[in-house]
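tl;dr need the bound structure. longer version: we got a ligand (magnesium ion) that a collaborator sent over and nobodys looked at where it sits. i said id run it. heres the input, straight from their email, havent touched it
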Amino acid sequence: AAKALAGGRWSSFDPSAAVRQARSRRLERDMRDALRNRQFFLRFQPQIEFASGRLLGAEALIRWNHPEFGLISPAEFIPIAESSGLICEIGRWTLFEACREAAAWPGELGVAVNVSALQFEQSDIEADVSEALSGSGLPSSRLCLELTESAFLGNGGAVIAKMCALRETGVVIALDDFGTGYSSMSYLADLPLDKLKIDQSFVRRMNANPNVLEIVRAIISLANGLKLQVVAEGVETELEADALQRLGCETGQGYLFGRPDEAIRMLSKWNAQKRLSA
Ligand code: C2E
Ligand code: MG
Ligand code: MG
Ligand code: MG
């Protein structure tokens, strides 16, 4: 019906949908062995302080190197992992792997890990985090968990209790993709958050649409008022970075600073600078 309304031609049989479904069933099947066969790996995208260009840390973004289809985006396979329940196992692997790699990074650099709502509902996220930290030696303050608003749709109370417990151990909590999805302001009053990530769809449109700019201004002011750090996602141009900085957003990530594989390169530069100044 949505398609008909949008002016598309209605058809009761959409072959491309059938192809998509077959591929998704295939991916679901193959995913069961992908962990064991080490087909997943992490990319790290730098998070930057706008004013200084300083590297603050990186977000871990999962990739699947499928033996037949090649590199598959998490935008495609994470939803499949969520509907099949495999997300808990995959998410646990991501958490452990991200902590293990980040423990070797210098200084205070942080690592952000995306955590699915289902991991909060169905697995013992507190035990997983504590095991990942103790196993890797990464200090809790250097781990940030990124949750989306969907985490609070179901069993909000239980999720909030787990978030509080995690935060008490020193782990940083960020709300990802803020402003999209089923946004409701009311939960912001009760969530134990440290950071708010402005969704890239706002960043993308803020310089073309004055209304979007006002929304970004309001999000930043809301975050400041709630004493939350603001991180802008998807910063691609100097123009966007300047506008965000003028509005009071101090940190961001995006192709302007590095693609999701460039944190490691920046780390070695960071090391070199440290050695020079030492
Ligand atoms: P996200 O957490 O919001 O991650 C940001 C996404 O934006 C990443 O896509 C990143 O590559 C992309 N991005 C970063 N900078 C730019 C930019 O300047 N321009 C544009 N156009 N895009 C940019 P990616 O890696 O494809 O990941 C997509 C989503 O998949 C992530 O969105 C996250 O929700 C999910 N995801 C990734 N890894 C994991 C994971 O380990 N666990 C879970 N549960 N979800 C994950
Ligand atoms: Mg994220
Ligand atoms: Mg995001
Ligand atoms: Mg996203």
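gonna send this back to them w/ a short note. The pocket of magnesium ion (ligand 3) is lined by residues 176-177, 197, 199, 233 (CB under 6 Å).
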